[in-house]
Structure formats: C-alpha cells, structure tokens
TrEMBL record:
Name of encoding gene: LOC106823627
Name of the protein: Olfactory receptor
Keywords: Cell membrane, G-protein coupled receptor, Glycoprotein, Membrane, Olfaction, Receptor, Sensory transduction, Transducer, Transmembrane, Transmembrane helix
Coiled coil: none
Subcellular localization, as worded in the UniProt entry: Cell membrane
Recorded superkingdom: Eukaryota
Role this protein plays: Putative odorant or sperm cell receptor.
C-alpha cells in the first residue's frame, strides 16, 4: 500500500486486562484496592524514612527511593487502567500513549538498577561492615541514585522515541491494559525491525548488567555468611539481606519470564499477567516485604501513628 493511502492513528484503543463485560466492575474494585494499598504502603515508607531519625542510613535512603519508584510506576499505569474499567470506549490519545510508555520505562529501568544498588549496599554492609559508612557515604548514595535516574530517563527517551518513530495506521487496538513496547510494535504498518532490536537489546543489557551486580553481590554475601562461626551471627547477617533477596527474586523472576521467553512461545495474554504483577502487584508487595520483616520499621510505624510529632527529626 502506498504511503498516501495510510490514515495516521491519532488515538489507540486498549483492550484492558479482560474484554468480558461482566468482569469490568469486579476487576475495577480489585485493582482499586491494589492501587490503594500501593499508594498507602509506599507513602508510609517514604514518610517514615524521611522524618524518622532512626532511618537516616544508606539502606533506608535507597529504600525510600525504591518506594518513590514503585509509587511512580503504579501511578503511570493504574489511574488510566481504572478509568477504562468504567467506560465503554477505552481510548488513549497518541501522545498520551507515548507519555505513558516513557513514564513506565523511566520507573521500570530505575527499579531494575535501584535493586542492584541495594544489593551492592547489602554486600558492603555484610562483607565490609567496618568500612560501611565510608564506602557507602552520603555523597556516594546521592551519586548512585542520581546516575540511576539519569540512565533510566535517557533509556526511556531513546526507546520510546524508537517505538514511536514507526508509522501507525489503520489498526489501533492495543492488546494490553497500557501502552507497552511489544503490543505497540505489532500494530506498526512500517518495518519495526530497528525499534524491536532497540527494545530487545536495551532490555537484555539492563537485565544482564543489573543481574550481574545482584548475583556477584549475593555470591560474596553468602560466602561471607558461611565464614561466620556462630549460628546467631549467621542468622543476623542473613536477616539484613532477607527482605531484599525476596524482593529481587520476585521482581527479576517476573521480568525474565516476560522478556526472555522464546519468541515462538511469546503470548500477549501471558504478558498481561506478568505486566499486572510487576507494574501493580510488586509495588504493593514491596512495602509489606520490607516492613513485615523489619522490627525497626514496625516500631517506627507504631510510634508515628500514635504520636506523629515525636517521629520528626529535629531541624
């Protein structure tokens, strides 16, 4: 077909999690609860680690930014998703779709590398405890977080620009509940080879380097724990990493399932389930994982709820 016959797409239609009409209202309430818990949990972590003097350490500094990222990731996806459960025509404008994709990429790449930074933090805490505050100084903390955000923002610009550099015409139905790379590129009426390559290479590089950092960090952590003679010492050392290990396992496991499955077995419906997990469920679970296993967080939360003024740092 000649380019002149193409009708440029100005809006997309999202199929949503399910196209069954009888499930729209029940699903709306399910995801409203999930998003509500995500907002409440992550805002609690952000508030506690900001105002309580007990949490002014590198570990909680990184945890605060992980909570900010989780909150941002869910907020990019959930509000539009919830609205679409209640309307008949689930449309999203072209530039709104591009913005949503860009925002999603910023937060998902940030989370990938923030978890890697947190693994490095736990490595230093367990393997070099005497040098912890020197190696992971305040300046280094700000540098690592700044580089994480800068890299994720740059990646989002490059990848989303590539995805929207192709032509979209005629078909505008996205088989997803938000604007994501793979379902968008399947709608392209021009050659999607280059943007598909950019998406795959970017995802592979990000996962590879972040996982190398995590695996090397935890390999050394395990070796260090095994050298500890007392069982109480090993238990204490392991407890400092347990919450992060759980969060890392759940998050990376979902991403690996999503992006590295064989192309012949690739299913957009399967992708939806995985996407629900890492865009909405994991951001809800992370505050619980870090809070329920942390006595200091539970004590601070109780103190904050009973006497908020006592938790604020003295200025």
């Amino acid at each position: 077909m000649a380019p002149g016959n193409f009708t440029r797409v100005t809006e997309f239609i999202l199929t949503g999690v399910s196209d069954r009409p009888e499930l729209q209202i029940p699903l709306f309430f399910v995801f409203l609860v999930i998003y509500g818990l995500t907002v409440a949990g992550n805002l609690t972590i952000i508030t506690l680690t900001s105002v309580d003097s007990r949490f002014q350490t590198p570990m909680y500094f990184f945890l605060r930014h992980l909570a900010i990222i989780n909150l941002g990731n869910s907020t990019v996806i959930a509000p539009k998703m919830l609205i679409n459960f209640l309307v008949k025509k689930k449309t999203i404008f072209y530039y709104e779709c591009a913005t949503q994709l860009g925002g999603f990429l910023v937060f998902i790449v940030s989370e990938i590398f923030m978890l890697a930074v947190m693994a490095y933090d736990r490595y230093v805490a367990v393997c070099n405890p005497l040098l912890y505050m020197v190696v992971v100084s305040r300046r280094i903390c700000f540098l690592l977080v700044s580089l994480t955000y800068l890299y994720s923002f740059s990646t989002a610009i490059v990848v989303s620009s590539c995805v929207f550099s192709v032509s979209y015409c005629s078909s505008n139905v996205i088989n997803h509940f938000y604007c994501d790379n793979v379902p968008l590129l399947t709608l392209s009426c021009s050659d999607p080879y280059f943007p598909e390559t950019v998406v795959v290479v970017s995802a592979a590089i990000n996962l590879f380097f972040s996982m190398i950092i995590v695996l090397v960090s935890y390999f050394n952590i395990v070796l260090s724990i095994l050298r500890i003679r007392s069982s109480e010492g090993r238990k204490k050392a392991f407890s400092t990493c347990a919450s992060h290990m759980i969060a890392v396992t759940v998050f990376y496991g979902t991403l690996l399932f999503m992006y590295l499955q064989p192309r012949s077995k690739h299913s957009l419906d399967t992708d939806k389930v995985a996407s629900v997990f890492y865009t909405l469920v994991i951001p809800m679970l992370n505050p619980m994982i870090y809070s329920l296993r942390n006595k200091d967080v539970k004590a601070a939360l109780h103190s904050f709820l009973t006497n908020p003024c006592s938790s604020f740092k003295s200025m």
